[in-house]
Amino acid sequence: MPELYLAAAPYFGWDLVRVVQELFRYAFMQHAFEAGTMVAISAGVIGYFVVLRGLSFAAHALSHIGFAGATGAVLTGTAPIVGLLVFTMSAGAVMGALGQRLRGRDVTIGLVMAWSLGLGLLFTRLYKGSANLAIGILFGQIFGITSQDVALTFVAGAVTVLLVLAVYRPLLFATLDEEVAEAKGVPVRALSIAFMVVLAVAVSEAVQVVGVLLIFALIVAPAAIAERFTTRPSRGVLLAALLAVLFTWAGLTVAYYLPYPAGFFITTIAFWSYIVARLAAPTLTLPRRRGTEILARDEQARHSP
Amino acid sequence: MARSIAPAIVADGLAAAYGDQLIWRGASFTVNTGEFVAVLGPNGSGKSTLLRLLLGLLSPAAGRLEVLGTRPHRGNADIAYVPQRRNIDRDLPVRGRDFVHLGIDGSRWGIAVGNAASNNQRVDEAIRAVEAQAYADRPIGRLSGGEQQRLLLAQALAGRPRMLLLDEPLASLDLRNQIVIAELVAELARANRLTVLLIAHDINPLLPIVDRVLYVAHGGVAIGKPAEVITTEQLSRLYDAPIEVLHDSHGHMFVVGLEAESAHHDA
Lengths: 305, 267
Ligand SMILES: Nc1ncnc2c1ncn2[C@@H]1O[C@H](COP(=O)(O)OP(=O)(O)OP(=O)(O)O)[C@@H](O)[C@H]1O
Ligand SMILES: [Mg+2]
Hints:
The complex is a heterodimer. Chain A is an all-alpha fold.
């Protein structure tokens, strides 16, 4: 008797198996977890390089440009994701071509961002649809994901992660030491463009989960936290992906039980995790050996004649 | 006659320009394999530009240039390069060791699989060669200029090059460390039979170790033994201005008369 069953409050307690069963009871939750996990992995992996390359703001701007694309697509009768991809990938390619010159261009980036939101607003009004459309794109619609969306997300997520892995070492080289990398034959400019295009795909995917406005929570926050806890790039990438997945899972779980949106919980968890990380690791995790070394040396000097 | 060894660098009527802005021209010189050459000259005279030519990052505007038997090309694994002082972000969450590692496989595609152990060993060797063991595992941005310089040198060495191009590696070091690093480079160059071009502004810490100096000034390039090039007559001709070279009792050289010299000139 499904009615009766539905009427019962969703189970929550210490029986974790039952909690998981409860969470996966409905297709919409399954889809949310599937897509959310893939999106989080790709956001975390790419986010590590976004933070290392100082592109957080550019990533944020990309998602706003995507808003104009998504609403524009709806206006012309196409799927929002298509508009998102077209707009973010074109903008990403331009940003990538600008490369280092993008740094410190906060004003330019900010203006493009504001204009994109303005365009999106216009498109939404022209569409005369409900404001739900815009709200969905701005804040994400993780519980409205179809199995088709899940498949698409899996393909896009896997491709972005594989691409980053394929260029991992030269990308790291170009990020940390552009001049030497260039002299060593790393195609610095091509990598910069490729990275921004891959980022554009990751951003477009992440928009489904957390929306245009909350993108920071999945792309930047996990990486920024990871970089406080490890000085090894490979571990940083893994930790960022892991954190992004945890934030997503936790956010979805809480949102299932409470009548508030998942985007709110994911961003809240990301925000507070960052605060806690800052408090726990106020500076980089340094092996603070130097001081103890000196003390040990003094000690030795005292004992030797 | 002694067995002839192929020269490391051959320049013939070489000219460097950015677009139609000529930097210097008429450079004809040879650097022998295993030679230690100091590159001197005022700011903006085109010293770094010379390295860019050797690295294949810039094409010669005129003339011929050969490096290690071939035309310069980007990605030449035989040439290691340490660029002019970079400001490494203090918060960069990357260890010095990871920087060194890039010198071995940074330009290979994909992620590192397999030979991780042997590469780590090479990294350790390079770090030991520059005596940076004590701080190689700390975030590189938090190290002092001299410590960073050593690790960047280790990165260059880790690729097992035949030629070392160092752009002002002694800048921002105190006098004692200038000498220490210069001697370290010379020692490593001898041990590994490297040809070295080292850009500097003060010849004195380098005097005991350089074979020759290459002067880049006033739109031209001159090469010779320090005692031949750094003379009142030579420098006056090179700069086209009255310049005096003074010697103190320790053999140090002081170039006087450059104060008013501008790096730019009418080509
Ligand atoms: N990419 C570039 N495009 C145009 N002009 C350039 C470029 N790089 C350098 N220049 C110019 O070429 C000249 C030589 O520059 P270079 O960097 O080789 O000087 P330098 O001798 O290394 O000086 P410094 O001692 O200050 O490092 C300068 O006038 C500089 O402004
Ligand atoms: Mg220079």
